[in-house]
Specification:
This protein has about 1100 residues and is of the alpha+beta class. Helices cover about 30% and strands about 10% of the residues. Helix 13 (about 695-720) crosses helix 14 (about 730-740).
Amino acid sequence: EEGPRPIFCFCSAASLAATMAPRDKKQKNAEAREAKDAETKDAKVAEPIEELETDAVPVKGSAKNTDTVAFLTADTTLNTLTSDSGILMSLHEGGMQHFLAGARANVGVSKGKYLFEAKIVELVSLPDAPGVKNKTTFRVGFSTAGSSLIVGASSESFCFDGDGATLHNNKRTSNGSKIDRNTAMVGVLLNLDKDSPNFNTVSLFKDGKRATKPVALPDELKGKTLFPHVCFKGVSVFANFGPSPAAPLPFKCNMIQDAAKAHCTVTQISPPEGGKYEVVYPVSLPDEGTFDWLDMYLEKNPHVTELSDRMIMEWAQKSGFWASNAKASRDKPDGMKELDDASIRRAVYTMAPLQARSYVVMEVKGNLLKDERKELLSKFDTPAFTKTAVVLVGEPSSEFKKKTLEMTLKKKQAASDAVFRSKLAEEKRKKAAAKRQKDQEKAKKKAQTGMAKKIAEAKKKAWTDKAAKALADDKPFEEKEPEDYKEVEEEPEEPEEVEEPEPDPPKVELTPDEKKSFFFAHDVQDLAASVLSANFAKFSLPTKAEGFDEVRYTWSKESKSEEHLKKWIAERKLTLRVEELVPGQWALKTYKDWSTTLMEWQKKLKAYKDKIDAKARAKAASEAKAKMTAALKAAKEKALAEGKTVPEDKKEEEDKMEVDEWEEIDPAEFAKLDVYGAEDILDVGCGAPLFKDFAAADWVLMTLRLELHLLAIAFAKDCNDPDRLGVHVDHIPFYYSKYFKKNLSPADYGVPGCNEIVKLVTDTVYLSSQSVLQSQLSDDMETFAVFAKLAEDARRNRLLRLDLGDEAAQLKLNGRILGSFQITQPRGQKREQPKEWGNQQQQGWGGPPSAEGAGAWGGAKWGASKWAKPQGQATIIKPGESALTAAAAVAPVAGKGAAPAPAAVADSSSGPKPIGIIRPGASAPAKAATPVFAPPAGQPFTPAGKGLVIPSAAAGKGAVAAPVLAGKGVMPPPAGLVMPSAPQWQSKGVTPPPAAPQQKGVTNPAAWAGKGAPAPAAVAPPAAQSYGKVQDKGKGAGPAKGASPYGKDSSKGGGKDWGKSAGYGGGKDSWGGGGGKDWGKG
């Protein structure tokens, strides 16, 4: 009637062309299908709904509302475009087309019965968007002032959805009435008239006809002022608030525009002071009240629009985007891949300055960085806005602290309630299970009682019939009713238990420490750890010079705020990582030089040990040739004495084998060496390097010393920040990986954490009182020799502690880290074991390890129980020597693979004695050495225990069980052992075989009958050699795997003597050695 009215909106040329272009075939087909569906549904309309509504009394004169009902900009989403004619449209580019647009009217009602109308006027073709649930959405309903602009998404709103459902607090309930473009007009009737039969209901009408029964208003909305609300996506909408309906209802009804003043509330937004809208930039430290202050601010200022990634994420989720529950931070929440390209953010900041409303820009990191603050300020660099920085640093206001305590108590109460409900549910479950069990038993007993009753009744009836028949036949009946024929009595029913009312959860209270806290501890932090560590050192407070119209310090004054920020940054420099740190040239060159030096040291060690091996081989060959020459000479002389003709030897040049006169360093002299006084660690005497006895663990720990020292020094150089005191213990693995390109795992070193790793090398580095890594060495060392000296000193100290029984000194490095330093060692020398003897890795014949013993032959080695401390170093007695002379004369063999005997044994018998191993001091009074056990094949003889348990299973094979030592954790060698005859062994729990001296040794007792030949006497291996190891089947002398055990040859035990070859047990010059240097090593 008034003629056409212009509509102004913002759009791009592309979107305008798309809007004006004729509908494509796809859109036409979609509309045709919708029309057909509507016709089909209309054909199946159920019985008409009885109308209970009556005509409303018109509002007249001064009682009528005079304010125009409209959509205020502050009550619309940023992508909504409005007009004075009631048309609502949304943006269609930059990803905004997939977000719901919402608009709430400025007039709400709390009483009476009022109507408003809406209609879809245009369908907009939207491209596919992965992750978006719906393309087209249309909702009409009511909401409270200041609630979410997406109607139906919260408990403060209710609506009818175009898909044929009602929506409240994101809960959808089907009502069977869809809304599409073919619907001319929809009307939403809100009945708040307490005298109406439909009081507190909402009804939907389509084209003036009732589409649904009155739907009850949710309890959360009863008694509140409710405002008309429209929400849409993929459509354009027309809204009509009156005064007249476009589609009249079957009864007369007032529209929102004609609402009575007494029934309605009008939202008033005062124009800003000076005609400028305010843009607030909160500046607060991470996790110190940022978003909590924002929520309080928005609650007080409901018409201020939040601009933040949090707002965008919530808007996207309400619009149907799928998002994971995981959040990297509250400042930049992740979990929605469609938003990762920041196109939505750009569109938001493009639209915001064009709309007349106030904003609060919440960027936790951005508002703390000067460069990003300038960029955010530039978004609103127009005369329409005043820009204010609100600094929230330091101790918060009393109002904020009160809010924090309320939130903390609420969270604690919720956690307590959850635990209480869980326990209550468990008690109910147990009670229900017990009741079911009781009911089952009751039913079973009842069934048994019923069956007994039936049997008793049957027997009674049979007895009665017999009595009646006897009476009828006039015969005497003397049979008495048996006791078990009596009627079975049923147990009375137990009264059902009355279910007690569920108790209320206990009330919790805050602790004194919780009451002192200024800020609420959220489950998700404001900034991701990587973002915080990369930026916190650059945080600053805003100034007017940056472009702010006002800088407002809300919690503390400017000076105190600056002081708090400096202190906060200093504390974080101790605990946060420098993500962008790059190792400097000094660190890279030093580590490269170390790697080169380490290789040279290992080459030197290998050359030294190869020299030891070469000399041993040359000596063995020389002795073998001398023996052969002597044997040939003796044979020739014997033949000549018998008158035999002996051919003359051809004159050949005598091949004399020269033995290198070089001697390796004396162990005793090496033990006395002053480690730190060594001038040349590559030659501390006789060409021996200082690290000649290093095991793999020593090389690993020496390298660890260098790496942690280098890390502590290089970090200070490369960081170049005097406020950063060093590497915090929690970040050692992070920087270790940066500098050395490998992982540092406490598990590799057998310790729980980095604190314990540092304790392994406290002679080089340590942790300060602030848990910062510090080096004890200088950063300008000319050589790396000090690390070898530290490692050797630590090795000696560790071995000494182990000898004294200090189990804490045992290293527990795993195989992965030790594998990087497997240094070749001379034959016969055992590498130091990194694990405790007898651990699970070395279980075997000895069974599982015990607390006191070692299992698996006393650990990985024979006799390595922990229940007895070593009494000194081992001494090996040379053939023909007594304990008195050898105990002091023979050098200790620690580290050479040999070990002391299980116990000190003295022998009072006379005559030549077999070889034995004894302890210096304890065995010195003995007249002579005594025989000891031979270890099993493949097992070295090692220190610690007081005796070996010989199992009863070995009885009959040369051994007797010793119950005295049972349970000590030390397992026995196999059968075939030479037993000492000294009575002192009886006190040790081992019964010796009876001695019967013969020409070559001790006759085997009855238990060995037929099992072997006599043992040889007075034959010993060279000092400082291990024995008992068999590598090749058929070459060793051990009774378990030897090629010729006792008795295989009836004369001398197989072969020429023990074992197989000409020596004693298979070797030319070794006992059971098969020709090798060590006992049994063959």
